[in-house]
């Protein structure tokens, strides 16, 4: 089959019978008509339409050698640097369509599935590991153009260092049984973004200090698997009006708590289980981080460009471009954006074939970028608030502008060389990006996208090759350099 | 009459026929029943009830020597340091009732009116100045226990340094005529918080570089004066549930654009007009800044205490109190709070009788505090977000907890030694404070409470007595110290 | 005897036969003539002369009830708030004389000795504790106007959390024996500032996680006690010229490693030993921290005033006072200085009689100030560097100005309304304060004055009373508040 | 002739009769034996020896097509990307030899001379412009392997925005006359690093707001041209011992005030004069900034590597590698270093042939890097100070270690797995880098290397292409995008 269009996607998702709970009620009607989901699904559909647009088909799809059909480029296993660049350009297209606001745009997990499949042979012959299932999920996803979410955070009951969960009923989802049909999973995972709005959900554990055998698994199952529940948070859609809520009306993705109520995962869906070593090493040795980061950094760059545009548009709208402190603030955007771009480019330039024959973007520059963005994104938002100043609070609605009081608004809220309507549109966008519930959730999302920033810097410290630099200093000082680092 | 209770206040406000525009419609029903206003008015009423509570009457009211009635303490003209402390304790009571979230709690402008009245004799004999009108507004306000808002920001059309508005139709409100009845005002002002929700609105110009004669005025008029319009922004009330929206359901004050459509200000309401020098100097020489800042810093301290409580409660709820970086973050709250308190206390200790016989809190420490808070408040919010981490996004609603999916929520979202319900209440509060539209508007509000932070530091630089310090250095170096600073 | 003059002090120190090692040689001549020490000793002498200046005697000394002689005010046991203020004013005088640059000005340890003596009764009846010795050291110090240094840091061999020193030869100084004469001490302590330049050295252990019994001691001994060695670091005196090195020529104090080579501490000099509990609790319960901090914060405030003067003098010298970013930078000084002052004042206002009958400055505000200064001091230095810019590098010497090339210097390095000579004096001062070896050592000194800033914030977190704030939040949320904090 | 060795260089410099004033005296003996200069000249000589080392000749020199001799690679006019990389590798070699501490290593101005020569045709036919002189200076420099400094800052008399120098005697160097022989220059320039220690000095004006005709010139003259004086600042050489002062004994370059006392610049040395437009545009259109920045960023990266090595060596020496805050601090080095590297690499990857046929590194990434380094360099120094803590103050000298007190030092100052001698070497290096007069001058030097950081961000703001980003936002909002930016 290969790449599908937006309508096909929506029809398929509307037919899924996932158990989604919203504000205390189980959703029964069409997802695409629900006020909390219709905006994001429409936007998602637009991404699928894009890939069938003849003028873009070449940039968004490739002809699968297996099926001979046009297939989403995020599924392409890259063999050359050109493939890497091709993949990135595809992701830029989608990110521009969503202004970088859709964290779980389908290319994200598609890339993960592709990375898993590319590295599956690592699991060959290992106990309780089924690399062939990864390959078949990949092939099925590619041929049906499926969408996925994934979930990996354990519930935040207790973050103490020496905490060890002792409750009898599992809290973090774990394997509580297995039988002829498959594994039985009970417990919960936090924060499946777009939970219930995708065809499948990919579940795996991230390595941590106290990983237990019954938590060392990975699998992918359809969203409507019996016993699987998605419990939504409050919706951050501000309303239908794209004038009033230009971002949340289109890009609010929803996050949900995922509950596994004795969920049966069929054997042919299990990637591995009960093997701590394989579980930890597969994530380290596979190209997972490379491709997940390659997509994310690409998206974050597009988002940064959008934010720079907004910041500068604010500057021009209220005519503050002559101030030195404004130059400093916009320079922060420029420096952040260009730094991210240089790191992404370096990662691509230095990409290498891995042991599984896949061309990987070079990981370290992406890792650096992923340590930078959680710091600059909140600062970008803060700068936009500071440039906007009191204008960020004066936010009449579309209805008000079109009402009999509209003429007053038009006169008194005009911008420098901008009508009031344009001015309000611009400020509402800045507000929706940085001050609405949608906007602040984006801040939190980017801040923790790859985990706790403090742990990320420990990882960077521990993995970065520092020994040669220390050795050079020892040589300069003419002192012993053995055993450093 | 003197101090009134909450019901009296609400009845009075419901009977005012102010022209308030909300989402394109003019409000016609009772304000106290409107979804956007009922929460804040109920909270405001609770403040008035408090002052009639016998156990607090002594701390919240004084017996006016004129009327011999219990009168709100914010109207007390202080003559001693004890009066200053009494005033502050009254304001603490109200701030605790509102957790420091109500920027325009009535004591704020009451204090300004009191300060104006205390300093009115400054205007005696000056051209186009009517100190007697200030006194009569003060007396009327005190005896009827009125509430006020004020408005002083000019619309943000163009912030260029050398911009000079040349549009024919006025944008910033100005005197366009005067006749036997009074002044005629046309134009707009930005950001009357609680605009239309108070008995009166106090209007005056703040000194700036290009102040024109027709903008050099001050007056107070009832909110339902003909031609006066309040155009609201979107409401940030998240909903009625105090579980879901513990702050916005109670404390969302609304901001509005104030339009003067040929408003006639009767002569007995005019404080001064058409006198640039008096306009500028009255604000500088009167005790306005002292008392406005004394109330604000008091409120901000109470707010900081509330925030420290929330931050520490989060720490305990997810049991992260052992981490050094948590100690650093909570220490930032402690240091900020104690700094604000020390400055307030110094201001009170060093209070002095002014030339008008009023005991004033010493201004410089309050000014320093007002330069500090706009920096620490956004940082406090950021720290709360960082401590809360992923928990800030998992926000089920009251309805969800009470529904059939509630048991799942109760199990999987429990805290360390907290039920899920308690845990969610705590996190929803943290969210409403720092990430809801209500919360981010509070950030912007505190950031700009006393104006652009950059201009505030220029003011501090220009007014702070540096000469003696420079001279001491010159003496140490044995160089000429004349003409420094 | 009581307060002595500078000459008496110098004569006494010149006669001490302390074992001081400088650049590999043991010093044999007069300390007051040694290039590394003559500047600081001359400055120290000027402090003693000051207290005998008739016009200041009243502010710097008090009549001791025991000896009926004028005695240095730093020895006064305060009984009233007025005594606290009197003590502070005395310390301001000395700090102004030294521009806050002398960290071990005699009033510092004098205050510690006084605090120890005031609280000595805490040790009464405790095992291996000799409160009477504290009292006699205090009385002797007061009557002879002695000067002290102290030392408490253990050598920085290994800072790992779980490090436990296992070397056979002690590194940190400990009790290795005791006999009829007294204790025998072997090992080292780090960083006695002015080590060897004072009459006595006070030695005690600060509480830490792994305090051993043989490290739990306190005593004071003369600097020339046999076996006691002071090993100096490199001198940071830039030269004799006060033109070239206005600060280091006067205020460089020297730091030294203190080695105890089987030093015998006579019993009448021992305050306590071998009692971990007493050792820990005496420092916590005595007024030690209150008075040590009261002196330090007073000194740091005077230093901040001096720095603000320098910064502003630079601004005027190159005429950059019109720039907004300069206003922001100078405002940082003002805010920092006024914050420190308000905290000191609050500490004095809230001082209280302790269980031993001593009036103590309130500790928490001083503790907050001691958490603030290590952050603002390096920033003050950085701002001075940034204002000075390229001028900080163009530093001709006194000799150059007075040479035949002087006319060129005079012409080309003139300032705005300043001669080149004045301009160079000003910049050399700014340089000596922030960029000379003397200046950077001051940065490190202030940064670590009360220990590792990270541990200080843990202490603040752990000792600050947060429970009431948490409880208030719980009440607002109507949730259980028992067991918080 | 082509590339020469160190001895040839030193002999040549010793024979120059430049007028250098040091501490009020004119230097008459050999420069290479003067205590203030011998270290840096020895280091400089080592760079020249390196290029004649057979094992490196290929990487450090090229065969000049004109002379057919091995010639310093910094003189190579690059025609391909490979040439750019070759140039960078050469500069890395030299930077590693000097640890990035020599700001005026000869490749810096050599690259500028090459850039000028490559772009000289821009000046062809323009009034008062002599492109042929640039070419002949370049050829002579290349064939004789000359070294240069340059100077461009005007004395800092008054930095007020609207200051206009009105003194009769020129302060900033300007053309006061011209005659048959050439131009006559009078006045001064600030901060020629290595002034008098190079064969020639390149003088040109940087564009600024008030550039006058008589300041619009460029030329290069021998350092011993009559009337040219170099007035040195105080020397920051700490001493000869590389143990005590590992950096300043080798790398202290000296800065000097350059005075032109009616200096005659022969016509064949004049590049242009009296042509403001040419003066401004030549610097903008030539490859000057590209090649100057390419060298500088390369040097700064090598310096950053050295600093990371030192920081990590400190961490290991006192065994603090387990602390999270240490991970964060070392991560700052890693992130800074990798960011600089990615930007440099991007600049090379995107290098392009300019209109003069020269392959140029792409400017924008280098410009970003030059905005980043002035911020991270002082922070790197601060982190090193913070990691080193009290160890940065305990600095015994080489002589002390080798004296009879040495055994005490050896015992008490040992590190974790390091002897005291090694430990002290390491800390003295960290101190010399960040806290000695040499080290703080390096901080100031890097902070202002390309000028005032505030002006640099204004330049970035004004030159960065923002319009497309603004346009994209306008399209998203469906508003007019004409005339933006």
Automatic annotation (TrEMBL), chains A, B, C, D:
List the InterPro entries hit by this protein, alphabetically. Answer: Acyl-CoA_Oxase/DH_mid-dom_sf, AcylCo_DH-like_C, AcylCoA_DH/oxidase_NM_dom_sf, HpaB/PvcC/4-BUDH, HpaB/PvcC/4-BUDH_C, HpaB/PvcC/4-BUDH_N, HpaB_Deino-type
**Keyword NADP, does the record have it?**
no
Q: Where FAD is bound, by residue? A: 156-159, 193, 452-455
Keywords from the UniProt entry: FAD, Flavoprotein, Oxidoreductase
Q: Does the keyword Oxidoreductase apply?
A: yes
- Residues forming the HpaB/PvcC/4-BUDH N-terminal domain are 6-271
Could you tell me the Gene Ontology terms of the biological process aspect for this record?
A: phenylacetate catabolic process
- Please name the Gene3D superfamilies in this protein's record: 4-hydroxybutyryl-coa dehydratase, domain 1, Butyryl-CoA Dehydrogenase, subunit A, domain 2, Butyryl-CoA Dehydrogenase, subunit A, domain 3
One GO MF term: oxidoreductase activity, acting on the CH-CH group of donors
UniProt domain HpaB/PvcC/4-BUDH C-terminal: residue ranges: 282-477
Name recorded for this polypeptide? 4-hydroxyphenylacetate 3-monooxygenase, oxygenase component
**Source organism of this protein record:** Paenisporosarcina quisquiliarum
Encoding gene (name): hpaB
